[in-house]
Amino acid sequence: MKRLLAFFPLLLTAKLPAAAQDYGQALTVKIWDNAAAPHSNGISTPETLPAPNRIGNVSAAELYIFPADPAEATGQAVVICPGGGYERLAMDYEGYDVAEWLAANGITAAVLKYRMPAGHPEVPLEDAEQAIRIMKGLAPGAGKYAAERVGIAGFSAGGHLAAMTSNLAETEPDFAVLFYPVITARKGLAHEGSFDNLLGPGRDAESEARYSLENRVTEQTPPTLLLLSDDDGAVPPANSTLYYNALKQHGIEASLHVYPVGGHGWGIRENFRYRAQWQAAVLDWLERLRTKNEN
């Protein structure tokens, strides 16, 4: 069920405190922690850094804003949800590296450090929805970086979050870009770890169906671009095709790009053979949306 999030006070700073992550962003917006958010994930222990640019045990949501190059600005903005199986966040090649590339191409990007669900699926959803509100200027924080048209992008489990926000949030994104997304809990197709972390030990058939997002598409779902590899052994390609078929059944503008090889989790890494192709596809698709909206 869609729900309307209340406004909550935000803390923001242009000068990062000692504890904040510095990824080269122009602005950091502290969205909320478990005490201020509508719901808590129950995590009370500190964040972990299991590897460089990996954050686990997240209990406070933040938004890292990378403004568009003014000479190239399209007026669009994208909230980026890194992947990590709803257990940790890959903040570099699925986060700030992508944001820097988008910003250089005229699209303001905001990397979302969302709270881990820990069995509370509403928690990352409300973080992503509030990030959309902030970037649209409907909630304070983004200031001059707010945009009229704000989309969402997500990688793997972050793709599930982006698709969840596209269908279950009251304030929906204007478009979505999903990279090798987790979509379904169907047996034999699910990324089990993501759903275990999302739904917790109380996971049952009803909750699995509710968060299998091919079941949640409506005529209000935003236009969506999906990109993946045919040989993805972690998240079966059927996740994306199920979602694409659901989009088309409801008359939603969508595009599906399946690359022959690459496996899972390539993000913006230079060693992905089709890196230039997916970048061209994303920019072309965003430009088509922009032109269509202006006409």
Characterization of this structure:
- This protein starts with 10 loop residues before the first strand and ends with a helix.
- Helices cover 29% and strands 21% of the residues.
- A nine-stranded mixed beta sheet has the order 1-2-5-8-6-9-10-11-12, sandwiched between helices.
- β11 (224-229), α6 (238-249) and β12 form a beta-alpha-beta unit.
- The chain is globular.
- The chain has helices at residues 92-104, 122-136, 157-168, 192-199, 205-210, 238-249, 275-294; strands at residues 11-13, 27-33, 48-51, 54-56, 60-66, 76-81, 88-90, 108-113, 149-155, 176-179, 224-229, 254-259.
- It contains seven helices and twelve strands.
- It has 295 residues and is an alpha/beta fold.
Question: Mind sketching the topology for me?
Answer:
Layout: E1 11-13, E2 27-33, E3 48-51, E4 54-56, E5 60-66, E6 76-81, E7 88-90, H1 92-104, E8 108-113, H2 122-136, E9 149-155, H3 157-168, E10 176-179, H4 192-199, H5 205-210, E11 224-229, H6 238-249, E12 254-259, H7 275-294
Parallel strand pairs: 6-8, 6-9, 9-10, 10-11, 11-12
Antiparallel strand pairs: 1-2, 2-5, 3-4, 4-7, 5-8
Helix pairs in contact: 2-3
